[in-house]
Amino acid sequence: MRTLVLTDIHGNLPALEAVLAHPAAQKCDEIISLGDHVNFGPESRAVHDRLTELGAVMLLGNHEERLLRPADAEFDGYNWALMRWTAQQMADVDLHLPTDLRRGNVLFTHGTPGEPYHLVQPWEISSLLDTLPDGVTLLLSGHNHAPWDVARDGRR
Fold first, then answer.
1. 3-state secondary structure the chain
2. pLDDT at residue 2 in the model
3. pLDDT digits (tens, 9 = 90+) for 91-127
4. CB neighbours (10 Å) of residue 17?
């Protein structure tokens, strides 16, 4: 089974469609979104609907989690007007998504297992690999917007 793993789409429907149009993506049997498929881009609802239409497994990212509580006082500054606008688009969508997904020896998550807000730093990756559950040899996560491929002691 081939799996297309996406992360941090942030409401960018043209980018999602470009990835889906790639021949390698079209050969995949399933899609897993590691979170943050909403917010910042103008088409969060369209991205969510497209992923739903495709039967994608969607995990909770920090942006989906924030949309569960858009009226919180912490959103009074910075770019939270955009967050509230996105929350209006997503008002009737259940964003209570799973934080992690395990498939055999692979663990999928947004930030770190159980914590979609944790922004992993390069110096933490080796120790993070040590905390993975027994039998997990591959961790796939998003959130950082930067590719890292670190292997150590049979875990990657």
1. CCEEEECCCCCCHHHHHHHHHCHHHHCCCEEEECCCCCCCCCCHHHHHHHHHHCCCEECCCHHHHHHCCCCCHHHHCCCHHHHHHHHHHCCCCCCCCCCEEEECCEEEECCECCECCCCCCHHHHHHHHHCCCCCCCEEECCCCCCCCCCCECCEC
2. 96
3. 999 999 999 999 999 999 999 999 999 998 888 888 8
4. 12
Q: How far apart are CA 63 and CA 40, in angstroms?
A: 9
Q: What are phi and psi of 117, to 5 degrees?
A: -90, -15
Whether 76 shows a pLDDT value over 70: the answer reads no
The sheet with strand 138-140 has its strands ordered as 100-103, 106-109, 138-140
Residue 141: both structure tokens together? 């996560």
Q: If you average pLDDT over residues 18-42, what whole number do you get?
A: 96
Range 42-63 burial, b when 16+ CB lie within 10 A, else e: ebbbbbbebbeeeebbbbbbbb
